[in-house]
Amino acid sequence: MADRPSWDNYFMEIARVVATRSTCLRRSVGAVLVLERRLLATGYNGTPSGLIHCHEAGCTRERLKIPSGERHELCRGLHAEQNAIIQAAIHGVAIKGCRLYSTTFPCVVCAKMLVNAGIRSICLSSDYPDALAKEIFSEAGVIIDQL
After folding, report:
1. How many CB atoms are located within 10 Å of the residue 57 CB?
2. pLDDT in tens, 1-43
3. N or C: less crowded end of the chain, CB within 10 Å?
4. What is the pLDDT of residues 51-66, one digit of tens each?
5. In what order do the strands lie in the sheet with 38-44?
6. Per-residue b/e over 18-50, b at no fewer than 16 CB within 10 Å?
7. Residue 109: enclosing H or E segment and its boundaries?
8. Backbone φ/ψ region at 84: left (φ over 0), alpha (ψ -120 to 50), beta
9. How far is CA 57 from CA 7, 20, 54, 88, 111, in A?
């Protein structure tokens, strides 16, 4: 019998597959919300449902040469973490106490949303330079693990 992946590796691999659905031209991110080893919601970064994707509309932030992590309000898309929270809300799924698996560290906007949604821990596969997000998670007592 082949070695089974740890729970963290299992759910992170699912987040990586979810990221392949991304419609962002800059970065593909996937996120999954898990409670008691049960996957409750997924999300990837991209435009809202029903809107044209960035590969057709173009990327305003790219056109204006805005560095990564700045001027999020100019982006047509939602972040993977935001879409996972929205998916849970649409289907009436409570996510308080969940563990988030994300292919990258959440930005400050997502950090605030995750704290208010009651996310208690996060498992990441890569870092993202957002000092304020890290400060918010630390102050809120959110546990951060990186694979």
Report:
1. 13
2. 678 999 999 999 999 999 999 998 888 999 999 999 999 999 9
3. N
4. 988 888 888 888 888 8
5. 38-44, 30-35, 99-102, 121-124, 143-146
6. bbeebbbeeebbbbbbbbeeebbbbbbbbbeee
7. helix 108-117
8. alpha
9. 38, 19, 5, 28, 28
Rounded CA separation 39/49 (Å): 22
Residue 81 scores a pLDDT above 90: yes
Q: Residue 71: its pLDDT value, please? A: 85
- What are the structure tokens assigned to 137, written together? 């998670």
Q: Radius of gyration over alpha carbons of the chain, in Å?
A: 15
Q: Which residues are catalytic?
A: 81
Cβ-based neighbours of 107, under 8 Å, separated by 6 or more = 69, 72, 79, 128, 130, 133
Q: pLDDT at position 1, please?
A: 64
The whole model's pTM is what? 0.92
Structure tokens at 109: 């906007």
